Amino acid sequence: MPASAAKQPLPLQRSPSGSRSAPTLLKWGSLTEMNAPNASDWVSFRQDLHRHPELGFAVERTADKVSKALTEMGVEVHRGIGKTGVVGVLRRGNSDAAIALRADMDALPIDEIKGRDHRSEYAGKMHACGHDGHTAMLLGAAEQLVACTEWEGTIVFVFQPAEEGIGRGNLDPDAVDAPRCGGEAMVRDGLFERFPVRAAYALHNWPALPVGTVAVRVGAMMAATDEIEILFEGRGGHAAMPDEACDPVVAMAHFVVAAQTLVSREVAPAEAAVVSLTQIETRGTRASNVIPGSVLLRGTVRSLSLATRALLHRRLREQAAGVAATFGCKVHVTIDEGYPPTINAPRPAGIAERAARRLPDVQVRTDLPPSMGAEDFSFLAQAVPGAYLWLGQADDAHTAKLHSPAYDFHDGVLDTGIALFCAIVREEARSSVRSVD
């Protein structure tokens, strides 16, 4: 829908018992004809999650609410996958085709600005990335798909914790290779061994796109993100007698300049990458007349393919070793691998594009470049073919960017997200019929 026609939250309507009113079934021919009681119920649900944000793997309240909603719909529920992840399974008919639809549940450690009725009730925590909306959209889609009998197969609804990576090590604080995030934790916990699927889908609200826009592309959608620490060790001394010291600051400075050539001279021009060295910390002294014995450099590395990621890691180590040798220093390089790149496979990306194009008043963009931000859906998309979409939410009333204390999910796009998930199921069902024919 155009930005000017964005839907406003509707008053919540409930049955006398307090349960959600039965949804008007979405017909396959008119997937965006959402009825007001259904849409308003999920607005209320979303705003409740917004008032009660939870971080990392500690999303017990949210997981309880998700599980309760799925159970009330008649969806088979499995809990404790990836510590606090929730999986709902909906089977229909005799088809063995199965897909996963995924939403994230966690919030961020940010103080929300005042001024909205459903502001976070927890200091230092807020849903600043819209995961409350993602959860509500996927539950709304589950409700519609339970009520619809015009499909066959299995849908695996994946509600995961810790997309933001906050809480690493909570699963096993002593483990060197503790999961970095909820997506990795759920995959390691046997998500797709227990619930085999041929494809996985996820969407994320995108404040850079106007309401009524869906973006998807084949290939990289989001970047890999890695953190680096490089410690140069020299020999400290008096700043007035540099010949009697081995200055690690000089070595560090040469390395910073050399590292900037990696993207401009060693990564292919059509392949985006980022090497940003952002923090410098001298060790053992803050005095201006002392050459420190060591200096620590920190930064981030972003890449859009596993090949470029491996290249940057190798060359950063080689450059650091070469510079250190030139200036007589020792060097220790630590690269903490974060999320891999989110790569959309051709088949599910095509399914998602066709699904989005069937929705009225939706503009589909396939020409947008990848984001250099990161997303832990990448772990699911490494395990099975996947497609990750962006859902526009910008209008005059929703201009704040992701991770901003002023951000709020746009309730007017809930119905579009619900319809998009349903449309993906429809296209998968059509694809299954074509493959049988």
Average pLDDT for all residues: 90
- Helix percent reads 25-40%
Beta strands, count = 16
Q: Give the C-alpha Rg.
A: 24 Å
The span between the termini is: 35 Å
Please list the strands of the largest sheet in the order they lie side by side. Answer: 1-2-4-3-5-16-6-15
Number of helices: 11
Biggest sheet details: 8 strands, mixed
- Along the chain, the helix and strand elements come as HHEEEHEHHEEEEEHHEEEHEEHEHEH
Provide the CATH superfamily of the largest domain. Answer: Zn peptidases
Explain what the structure shows.
This protein is α/β, with parallel strands linked by helices and 437 residues long. The chain folds into 2 domains: 3-221 and 341-436, Zn peptidases (Aminopeptidase, 3-Layer(aba) Sandwich); 225-337, Alpha-Beta Plaits (2-Layer Sandwich). The protein contains 11 helices and 16 strands. It has helices at 36-51, 60-73, 131-147, 182-188, 191-194, 248-259, 261-266, 306-326, 346-357, 377-383, 414-436, and strands at 76-81, 85-92, 98-104, 153-160, 199-210, 213-215, 219-222, 224-233, 237-238, 273-283, 290-291, 294-303, 330-337, 342-344, 363-365, 386-394. The chain has an 8-stranded mixed sheet, with helices on both faces. Strands 10-12-8-13 form a 4-stranded antiparallel sheet. α2 (60-73) packs parallel to α3, α3 crosses α11 (414-436) and α6 packs antiparallel against α8 (306-326).
Question: What characteristics describe this protein?
Answer:
Aminopeptidase; 2 domains; 8-stranded mixed β-sheet; alpha/beta; 437 residues; disordered N terminus; Alpha-Beta Plaits; 16 strands; elongated
